[in-house]
Amino acid sequence: MKVEQLFTCHNASEERRVPMATLSIQGYAMYWWTFLERERRTHHKPPIQYWNELRSTLRRRHIPPYYERELMHKIQRLQ
């Protein structure tokens, strides 16, 4: 994932990873992220602070469940 390469390149600490990652969010995903932050504050939930949590939340919301399976099938066909 490109954002993880940025973390490595900049030697990003865990505290800086979520802010760095959200800088690259665009379009509908940015609208969703802003809404999610507001929702969490409204319901007195803590903000997302860790990259792993943000990554899994993004995947659940924006990547269809069959996507990984299709990628694996494509890779297997190449071999």
TrEMBL record:
Domain of life: Eukaryota
Protein name: Retrotransposon gag domain-containing protein
InterPro entries noted in UniProt: Retrotrans_gag_dom
PANTHER family membership: RNA-DIRECTED DNA POLYMERASE, ZINC KNUCKLE (CCHC-TYPE) FAMILY PROTEIN
Higher taxonomy: Eukaryota, Viridiplantae, Streptophyta, Embryophyta, Tracheophyta
Residue span(s) of domain Retrotransposon gag: 20-79
Organism from which the protein derives: Cajanus cajan (Pigeon pea)
